[in-house]
Amino acid sequence: MGKMLSQYLLSLFIAFSSFAAAQTCTSLTIPVNIEAQTAHITIPEPVDQSALTAFFVNLSTHSIDYPNTIINGTRQLKAQYKIAGKLCTPKNVKPNGTLEFATHGVAFTHAWWEVDGDNSEFNYAAKAVASGHSIFYYDRLGTGFSSLPDGIQEVQSTVQVEIAHALVQYLRQGKTGHKFGKLIGVGHSFGSVITVGVTVKYPKDFDDVVLTGFAIGDPVAPFVGAASFGAAIASEAIPTLNTPSSYVVPGTISSYQANFLQYPNYDPAVIAAQFKIRGTATLGEFTTLTTPVAPATDFTGRVLVVTGITDSFFCGGNCAEKINGTTPPNLVAGLYPATSNFSSYVPLNTGHGINVHFSAPTTYDIIEKWIGA
């Protein structure tokens, strides 16, 4: 088991370490101390795949609020974790420049921000640096090289919000040796949920935010996402992992397609490589998935929402639908009543996983121009 785990981590390390010569990248392991109010979830670790499947059947049943049936109050968590991250800056980085703080979503790791390697058009981090920005991106708690604690009681959305906040403070205090003048929160999917959560609780952490793979208002979409996730016990689907049965991954490349892709607008070879290094998620995260989403009444920065036209997780497959006259991406404006500017972009021929579609280079251009200098 130890040898296989080492092989899996080596594949992540290769992706973690390589980058283009036009930028300077540093891998970091950052200790974070957090206090968070967590949900007391009253389910055991799944005893087998059938028990896990039953959890997702219940979670995807539209007529019941399954999370509410298995949460019995809250607990106060105080813990220290190690978070693996990567800071990439332009070769001649200027002081007080712009830093993008990027948080990935469910079924991914930090590698979501550097898809297909150094010179790939799908590599978001490289595009950010080429645009004159620095970027910090990391393995969320419960993924990759970061700590892998209890997947039910600890790895939850509120904990992820506190970790993101702690990392932002670490960066703002210049502990990496760089001082940044502006911090832009960039999220994808669950990473956008976490970013929203930060703007709610810590409205001064980010100057502006970019929420990709995110929308609100479609009551069916979360159930579509849960039903099509095809969850498998991570350690059984990827034998090199040694995680509890509360850690899950998409079990097949077909479920990966159903959740993240719009056929045929992607490169199958890129998808196969991404599927091979797919990241874990936990039952604690799925149970508390939308907990951080609330009006960020004190956040005054700009907000950009970028969501693929056929996003399944947040639009149920149709982000052009109208809910009370407004599309789900534009409904996000309701979460930000004090924003200085709200805008959205919906790339065509694109599903939930915007970074792996052929539309990605154009999407990246729009995001980086929006962020500005």
Uncertain segments are 1-6, 11-20
Strand order within the widest beta sheet? 1-2-4-3-5-6-10-11
- What form results from the Cα inertia axes? globular
Distance between the termini: 47 Å
N-to-C order of helices and strands: HEHHEEHEHEHEHEHEHHEHEHHEH
Kindly identify the CATH topology.
Rossmann fold
Q: How large is the share of residues in beta strands? A: 15-25%
Tally of individual domains: 1
Largest sheet: 8 strands, mixed
CATH superfamily: Alpha/Beta hydrolase fold, catalytic domain
CATH architecture designation: 3-Layer(aba) Sandwich
| Class by SSE composition | alpha/beta
Radius of gyration: 19 Å
Mean pLDDT over the residues: 94
Give structural notes.
Residues 127-312 form the Serine aminopeptidase S33 domain. Pfam families: Hydrolase_4 (PF12146). Residues 1-22 form the signal peptide. This is Serine aminopeptidase S33 domain-containing protein. InterPro entries: AB_hydrolase_fold, Hydrolase_4. There is one protein chain. The protein has 373 residues and is of the alpha/beta class. The protein has a single domain (24-371), classed as Rossmann fold. Helix content is 32%, strand content 23%. Strands 1-2-4-3-5-6-10-11 form an eight-stranded mixed β-sheet, sandwiched between helices. Strand 3, helix 4 and strand 4 form a beta-alpha-beta unit. Helix 5 crosses helix 6 (190-201). The N and C termini lie far apart (47 Å).
Précis, in short:
The protein has helices spanning 2-17, 49-59, 66-70, 124-130, 157-172, 190-201, 221-228, 234-237, 253-260, 268-276, 283-287, 312-315, 328-331, 360-371, and strands spanning 23-41, 71-90, 97-103, 134-138, 180-188, 208-212, 231-233, 247-250, 281-282, 302-306, 341-345. With 373 residues, it is α/β, with parallel strands linked by helices. Helix 5 packs across helix 6 (190-201).
